[in-house]
Amino acid sequence: MKAFFQRIPRTVLVIALLAVFGLVRGPVEDGLRERLVGANLLFPPPASGALEQMRQSALMGTLGGLRTLVASYFTLVTFEYFSTKSWDDLRGGYEIITALEPRDETHWVSVVWHLGINATANMEVDERLPAFERDRRFKEYAFEAIAFAERGIEQLPESAAIRVQLAEVYREKLKDDCAVSRVYGDIIGLPGAPAYARRFHGYFMARCPGKEKEAYAYLMALYREGEKQHLPTLIKEIKNLEEKLGIPGPQRIPDADPDRPRKTPKRPPNLLPGEILIPFNQRELQLLRR
């Protein structure tokens, strides 16, 4: 955080001015907020713990109705940090943004994407750093993204979007199929959940060591729903599990393995484009005359 504020002195000035303004109007807003909360017309500041609630309440009380404006300002600043790959400063910026607007889903999704996907990708290719340092930072940013996602889910328990982005970090960066399956399982049934969540839950369960039997039963249940579920990946995962579990031949699904190349019929050497046959012998000539 210290490095963050050192890099943007103008931001400090803006916050200081807003804080003074907020302190003047704070007592009035505090009384009004308490009355609205007491009348069940306003939710209290959401938080997962005492320290988080203190931080959010301090920011909300100081900045009052200007929270959205300040959060928008910091969002622009953090985009600049994304452009310059200043990942630690970007993280500090989102600490403030998510504290100012903890119920804005897009902020949580963005920080998980920036740290879990962009920052880790940068560490994979940044040859200015030694390999051990790139690996250390890669893991640091990936797990910080997970921590942000978990905090966001605490604030927005029914958010499918945060969980989808979290699953991508586990899938693309940490290669943790068990965690991906678990997250997609949590997504099923949530408002706005993607239609593929049910299938992905099963696909990654099939790749999770020790979950083969459970995954086979789950994917077969999807398969029995009908043709709409008979997608190539589902067929492939079921066939892989059939091999691993030694499912007897008569109990296996009849579908062709999508990874097995299909045999194409040989074209006669005398067949031209447009299915025009050049007769090579008397029999073929007779066929053309019919």
Can you put this structure into words, describing what you see?
The chain is mostly helical and 290 residues long. It folds into three domains: 1-94, no CATH class; 103-175; 183-248, no CATH class. It is built from 13 helices and two strands; from the N terminus they run ααααααααααααββα. The protein has helices at 2-7, 9-38, 50-63, 67-83, 87-100, 105-125, 131-155, 160-173, 177-187, 197-206, 212-223, 232-245, 282-289, and strands at 271-272, 276-277. A hairpin with a 3-residue loop joins β1 and β2. α6 (105-125) runs antiparallel to α7 (131-155). The longest helix has 30 residues, at 9-38. The protein is elongated, with a radius of gyration of 29 Å. Residues 45-51 have low confidence and may be disordered.
Per-chain topology:
Elements: H1 2-7, H2 9-38, H3 50-63, H4 67-83, H5 87-100, H6 105-125, H7 131-155, H8 160-173, H9 177-187, H10 197-206, H11 212-223, H12 232-245, E1 271-272, E2 276-277, H13 282-289
Count of extended strands: 2
Describe the sheet with the most strands.
2 strands, antiparallel
Average residue-wise pLDDT = 81
Taking pLDDT < 50 over at least 5 consecutive residues as the criterion, the unreliable ranges are 45-51
Instruction: Return the string of H and E elements.
Output: HHHHHHHHHHHHEEH
